[in-house]
Design goal:
By secondary structure, the chain is α/β, with parallel strands linked by helices. Helices cover 38% and strands 15% of the residues. Bound molecules: ligand JD8.
Amino acid sequence: MRLDVLTIFPGWFDGPLSTSLLGRAIADGVLDVRVHDLRDWATDRHRSVDDAPYGGGAGMVMRADVWIDASEAVWNDLDAEVTRGRAGRGQVPTEAFAAGGTRPRTVLLTPRGRPLTQALAAELAAEDRLVLLCGRYEGIDERVHDLVATDEVSVGDYVLFGGEVAAAVLIEAVTRLVPGVVGNEASPADESFTSGVLEYPHYTRPAEVRGHRVPDVLTSGDHGAVGRWRDERSLELTRARRPDLLGGVAGTGAGASSAEVEGLDGSGERDGRRAEDR
Ligand code: JD8
């Protein structure tokens, strides 16, 4: 899979892309990730990519002309020197890509986007190529939403400073589903978000830590009992923390206890449990 990222903070991606699994996939040639500096397509000597909003108001808005030039260059695998300033003169009309159907899926990370889910990650993982657009400031000129983006995606209902962190989240969720990326074998954990239950708790050695022992069933050697225990814990965790995942039928029938639900009632507890349960 080929990934192109457009951002004003290209160096920000060095860390996320060099982690062992992504780094190895890139080294193996399974992933080809190219991070581009949007400022390479700025035309003034200050390399500015933003300006004051029409109609007034606080903050700055990212310029459509720079985004259009940069996106077209990336779509065509062209250097900034060749393409800078062309869109403004109408030499490489964005509409031609839309009409010709040659435009790769171009994902604008934005709070108004389609929520990123495991299903959307799987859909995007089936593409040969993705272009990710990371905005900053108050946002991007609406014409970039209209003319450049094929998709708008949000990683959750909270406000970030810009699209970079969101793009990194999308890259991890999508690339781990790409065949050949190490560790992409279908995992039971993935089923959490398709089959509708959270994963059971994991334990490893040592058998006792600060007086806390591993549940006996896990050391019993009874594989049937281990399986039943894990299924029960999965369902219990899901009822308590994410009853929404169980959907109408399973959720209402099982009936999460009020004590279970109390743990995730917005009390602000770190992991969804009350302090006395930890
Ligand atoms: C892109 C600028 C900053 C600051 C409006 C949009 C995604 N799930 C998500 N939360 N936030 C973003 C996100 C935020 C961004 C930009 C993505 C570009 N901002 C905010 C205040 C007012 N802008 C996101 N995906």
